[in-house]
Each structure stands twice: as C-alpha cells, then as structure tokens.
Design brief:
Layout: H1 2-6, H2 12-27, H3 74-94, E1 102-112, E2 115-127, E3 130-137, H4 147-152, H5 154-167, E4 173-178, E5 183-187, H6 191-210, H7 239-247, E6 256-257
Parallel strand pairs: 3-4
Antiparallel strand pairs: 1-2, 2-3, 4-5, 5-6
Helix pairs in contact: 2-3, 5-6
Length: 264
C-alpha cells in the first residue's frame, strides 16, 4: 500500500500483478543465495529461484499453511487471491483521490509518563473536516464483532497520543480500515484513554521485569514462539472482563465511517 503512493501504477491489474510476484517470491518460493546468505539476482535485477527437474520453483518447506502433496498449495492460492482482492479494491477506491499527508511514517522515542513509545502511522489524511489517522487491518472479522478492539485498543491510543504530542493538533477521528471488506470504522481517544494506557505500560513493565509471561490461550498459541520456556502455562480467561464492559455500557457497536470526503 505504500508502493501504491510511491509509484504511479496505471491500472489495478498492474498494481496487483506487481504485488503477486513479490508475494510468491517472498513467501512461497526458495531463492538461490550466495555464501553470505544474500539472494542472488540475474542480469535484470530479479531474484533467482531454485527450480526442480521439471523447471518449477521449489516451495519453501517452512510455510506451515501448505497442503502436503498439493503443488503450490491450495491455501497459498487462497491467500494470493485474498491479497489481490484487497489491492484491487484499494486501487479502485483511492486512485482518483489525493495522496495522504503522511503514509508509512515511523515515530520513535516518544516520551510518555516515563516510557518511550515508538510506532508507524499507516496513513494520516488532512481534509477541510480535520485530521484523520487511519490504520490498515486485514483481520478476518470486522470490528463490528469485537468492539473492545476498536474502542479500547492501546495501539489506537498510542497513535492518538503521538499525533497530539508531535503535531500539537487533535485528530478528528481514528479510522479502522478493514481491508477485506473496504469498510471503515471510527473511534476517538481522550485523556481517560491516556490514563488507561499509562496503567497498561506500568503493568507491562512490571511483567517484563519479573519475567512473568502468563499466556492468554487461544488460536495464536499455534504460532507462538514462546510456547516453550517463557510461557508459564497458566490459563487466564478474559471473557468475564469483556462481559463486564458490555454490562457497564462501555462496549458498544462501532459507528461506521464512510469516506474522507463525506461526513455522516
């Protein structure tokens, strides 16, 4: 999505096809490497792939989501098609619109109540209606089904905080851009959210200093690198906390936001 603004792609197909080749090479195929581990490139500057006796590129054996015995993996094609769909929608939506004021820009060493924060803004748009901070998400589910994620997630709080500290200006809204559907959802932050963030950071610092890495069991355990060692194998359920938020009226359905050029 950064390249979308860095290069002038003439069509949705050229944009999608550029990504497709990159995606397959980076995630699926095995590259030829030199003695220093760097990818070997041909005379045209393209990375050289290792091929089998039939001339087909070898697949990376470490890719867990390949189906055994299926050339190029049926699931791999599913992900490739998903990425293509996301990029095509993005191209068609944004090609005729102005470039964001900021995109893929990092901020570092942001001091906040004894802690140093860092992060990367996906995009910031400045319109006559105000400043909009947008974060791209490829989640399978939209935030309609997880209100806690959008209204209390510390990531969005840090974006808001960084914007106000660095630019000295309050944002109009923070937008959760659900790329799979192209829908946007808005949320806001206040001083109460910054207080909540401060408590989280203090708690996280204490956990790190004590090396008390208590897990939240779930589907992410399948890909966790800390299952052995740091994981203390103590289960914690967050269901009750979320239910309490619903009962107290703090969790509500997010309001959909339609576009940077129209306010609803």
């Amino acid at each position: 999505l950064k390249l979308f603004y860095d290069r002038d792609f003439k069509s949705a197909d050229s944009f999608v096809n550029y990504w497709k080749r990159y995606w397959w090479i980076e995630n699926v195929f095995v590259k030829q490497r030199d003695s220093n581990g760097k990818a070997v490139k041909d005379d045209e500057g393209k990375e050289v792939l290792i091929k089998d006796e039939n001339g087909k590129p070898l697949l990376n054996p470490e890719i867990a989501w390949f189906s055994a015995g299926k050339p190029y993996g049926g699931e791999a094609y599913g992900y490739a098609n998903l990425g293509s769909s996301i990029l095509k929608k993005f191209y068609e939506r944004h090609k005729s619109k102005p470039k964001p004021e900021i995109y893929e820009k990092p901020f570092r060493k942001l001091e906040f109540r004894g802690h140093l924060l860092r992060g990367v803004w996906d995009r910031i748009d400045i319109t006559e209606k105000g400043r909009f901070i947008t974060d791209y998400k490829t989640d399978k589910k939209s935030p309609e089904e997880n209100t806690f994620l959008i209204h209390r997630h510390p990531q969005f709080t840090i974006y808001s905080l960084a914007n106000r500290l660095i630019f000295g200006e309050e944002e109009k809204n923070i937008l959760f851009y659900h790329l799979r559907t192209g829908r946007l959802f808005k949320t806001r932050r206040s001083e109460k959210d910054y207080d909540y963030l401060s408590k989280l950071l203090n708690k996280a610092q204490g956990i790190i200093e004590r090396k008390d890495y208590t897990p939240f069991y779930g589907v992410h355990c399948n890909t966790c690198k800390f299952r052995e060692g740091a994981c203390t194998r103590i289960s914690i359920s967050t269901g009750a906390k979320l239910q309490e938020m619903v009962q107290e009226g703090k969790a509500q359905n997010p309001e959909e936001w339609f576009d940077w050029s129209e306010e609803r």
